[in-house]
Amino acid sequence: MEQEASEPEAPPPSFRLIKQRLLDGDTMVLSLVKQMLQNHFRTCSDRSCSACAKIRKRVDNRRERKKSLQRRFRIGARIAGVLSLAHARATERAYAPGGLGYTVACTSFEASARHLEPSCFYSSESEEHSRKHNPAPADACADCAGE
Q: Could you name the domain of life of the organism this protein comes from (predicted)?
């Protein structure tokens, strides 16, 4: 049997390639490194170990950051609740019958209602019914006649 000339085998992955995979976010490599660090942290008994000290510091920092974010969220939620209640009360007071907001809203509604064309949701084909709800242009109100 003759051996065909084949391409040379790829060299084993170097440290640079492994580092590049780590930087690219290869999850398998990252999980391997994470498992190695967790195992080291569990088994290491040396209190002066720099890797363990860094891990402890990062864990403490993340714990504090989580507490801070939860506190901020609670404060923001409380403020949002108070503001929505205040807005609802102000709206009720402004548009209560007889109040200034109610009067302004009524006049605004009546002014816009005068310019609207009446519509009917009933399906009837009688001539009288259609004349009643669709007036001829000559029957238009004085405000609309000038337009």
A: Eukaryota
Q: Domain locations in the chain?
A: 65-118
Q: Please compute the mean of the pLDDT values over residues 75-104 and round it to a whole number.
A: 88
| Identity of the residue numbered 42 | R
Q: What are 18-40's pLDDT values in tens digits?
A: 666 666 655 555 577 777 777 87
Q: 44 CB contacts (<8 Å, ≥6 apart)?
A: 51, 52
The token duo for 91 is 């709206």
Q: Which amino acid is at 136?
A: A
Question: Which residue from 72, 90, 92 is spatially nearest to 80, judged by alpha carbons?
Answer: 72
Cβ–Cβ under 8 Å, residues 86 and 78: no
